[in-house]
Amino acid sequence: MYRELDNLLSANTTVDSWYNDGCTIASEILSEFNKEDWGKLSIEIFNKSLEWQKKIAYCLDSNCNIYELKILLSLLETKDEELFQICIDTLRSFTTSENKQMIIKNASILQRINNLLPKSGIAVKKVLEDFVIKIYS
Question: Which domain of life does the UniProt lineage start with (predicted)?
Answer without folding.
Answer: Bacteria
